[in-house]
Amino acid sequence: MSQPQYLTGQREALQEFLSKYDIFLFDCDGVLWSGDHLFDGTVATLEFLRASGKRVVFVTNNSTKSRKDYCKKLEGMGIPATEEEVFGSSYSAAIYISRILPQRHPELKSKPKVFVIGESGIEQELDSENVPHIGGTDSSLRRLGINPEDYTKIAAGDPSVLDPEVGVVLTGLDFHFNYIKMCLAYHYIKRGAIFLATNIDSTLPSAGALFAGAGTMAAPLTMMLGGTEPVALGKPSQAMMDAIEGKFKFDRSRTCMVGDRANTDIKFGLEGKLGGTLGVLTGVGTKEEFTEGDTRPHFYVDRLSDLLAAKEA
Amino acid sequence: MSQPQYLTGQREALQEFLSKYDIFLFDCDGVLWSGDHLFDGTVATLEFLRASGKRVVFVTNNSTKSRKDYCKKLEGMGIPATEEEVFGSSYSAAIYISRILPQRHPELKSKPKVFVIGESGIEQELDSENVPHIGGTDSSLRRLGINPEDYTKIAAGDPSVLDPEVGVVLTGLDFHFNYIKMCLAYHYIKRGAIFLATNIDSTLPSAGALFAGAGTMAAPLTMMLGGTEPVALGKPSQAMMDAIEGKFKFDRSRTCMVGDRANTDIKFGLEGKLGGTLGVLTGVGTKEEFTEGDTRPHFYVDRLSDLLAAKEA
């Protein structure tokens, strides 16, 4: 396995590196910031890339936020960004459903109705692609418990509870996850709906600790279905790369993925056959992983802002 | 692998079969009834066994009901039963926690406090063994969503949300399952609590269809924990057999498990090295499974009431 090239402090190598790519895909947490702390030089580095004619894209598995919401988050962190520069797993799912599924499943209506387990970010992105949906933030499903009528209606396939037009179940992070949603999703899939997930991260970092990630909404269904996994549309799934490509029509050989995790970000770039992958040491991944692990980036730097050394003096 | 003996219509063989056992452990759904339909001859067969001096025990994975609740269900189906004859997975869990855990984990207090994901059946059974517990039906945890304060308090290990005395997390079927319970359970386990489940059935039959079973409350935690499975205390786990033995002090060689499912009921009896296992063909298992499958009972009959043919004319 080849050794990644270490670029920190190597002006000529940095300049050559930058000259190879037109688009940089960025993982965010661990690369641009950590938790609530923006790294020094993040904003200047992004500005330098943009000023050099590069396109930057923020690639996030956060499914609770739409691109618009995520832009606000970026701006709240002090990072200027446009909605066009954000690519989240909810948007990835919406693109996949509206543009890719109809090709792969000609038996579906061109835009099948989606039963959503998740928050408003998913709904906003489905709306942006004109994909019809139910579930999600519907207040009638935001309740605990199940009553005898639910059992009999679901068992009977009553169209007042099981919409016959649903052709896709999409699970994402849902803080309002509950028993009835789990049962409805199961019945839709058993009736033939395609099982998708915005992403299947097992945990969600918040306040310096880990909480339940979007994968915990898919896991019970996988168990009920006897092991059937969803098609996941976030990193490192290549379905997300396909969706990014569907949106930007980029040249993969001129694209570089930047991230801190070998097994998600770097893997995502390598399996997507991007021209380059850049590891940073400000997050989860270590120098040992990048240089001795199974999944190695093409390049690595101590921190993202080390790219600024490519500037002419 | 040996062939099971077919007993239907064989009076002498039936009499010999009955003479071998003092205790009969019964699975219920598929053996005594199906859904809401009590099989003809169920009551007469149970009465015949009791009149012949046999002890009958109803062994159920239903964790939402205490023994008392389950007795009412049996009586509602027309089957006379006493609380002493019922052994459910919640009671199994309570026995395991109060009598077996302290031996296996001497570092625990003799009765560690339990964080419960489940309904009142679990709480009643923990109470019956004087095991302290929190969570469960606590109304403060019956809410959807999570707020910023929850994140910071959980992350900080605030004792007002994470009780330092909790040494066990017990998951069972919870119709009020939600995000906050999932996160609390995860943090308790990460802090060292033992991860138990009343049972891990993936589905729950009701109204002729399948709904989410108790396993769907454990599956998200297993995912968050990177694959750690709970110790399951329902069939076919031998922890349940140990708990039954802890209660009845029976002679395994003089005990017979009766069930319709090869992979749960029959497996439960075989792995528990009971003297006998009897398959019935009124539920999930088929003659082919019983005679050609990997898990074969010692004996099988078409239906439970075929045992009545052992009566002297």
From TrEMBL, chains A, B:
Pfam families reported for this sequence: Hydrolase_6, Hydrolase_like
Keywords on record: Hydrolase, Magnesium, Metal-binding
Cofactor(s) in the UniProt record: Mg(2+)
Gene Ontology cellular component annotations, sorted alphabetically: cytoplasm
Record text on cofactor binding: Divalent metal ions. Mg(2+) is the most effective.
Catalysed reaction, written as an equation: 4-nitrophenyl phosphate + H2O = 4-nitrophenol + phosphate + H(+)
Keyword Disulfide bond: no
Record-listed substrate binding positions: K235
InterPro entries for this protein: HAD-like_sf, HAD-SF_hydro_IIA, HAD_sf, PGP_euk
Annotated Mg(2+) binding sites: D27, D29, D260
Keyword Hydrolase found: yes
EC numbers, comma separated: 3.1.3.41
GO molecular function: alkaline phosphatase activity; metal ion binding; phosphoglycolate phosphatase activity
Location of the active site: D27 (proton donor), D29 (proton donor)
Protein name: 4-nitrophenylphosphatase
Organism: Knufia fluminis
